[in-house]
Amino acid sequence: MAGWDLDPQGIQGVLKTTGEFAGKIETHTKAYGDHLQSAATSAGTITAEGGGQGGEKAAGGLVALALSQFSEHTINDLKFIAMRAGKSLNGAVDATTAYTNGDLEMAAEAQRKALGAVDVDPSKPGAQQA
Description:
Layout: H1 8-23, H2 25-42, H3 62-100, H4 104-114
């Protein structure tokens, strides 16, 4: 790791900016869910069964079902993005701290760990939580 030439102050600025943006991921994820729910509610009530009975509005429709299924399939992607951002930021902090303290081996190890896989499956032992 003799080729390392880091600017800790510059890294700190980048981490601050990146951390502020990453902190907004939760807000954007909530808005994403709210918008999908609103779209599903507003999409109409065409159903395979022909709609509500007795003049009642149907509870949902095919579009609402499709949006629900889409949401279920994309939620792990959103969790992955948040977890990857957090792991990357923490790894950069750990590596920079080790570098600043003169421990290049520890810096390299922190960098290696930050690049490791992220597992969003909560049923697996050792899986990270969003």
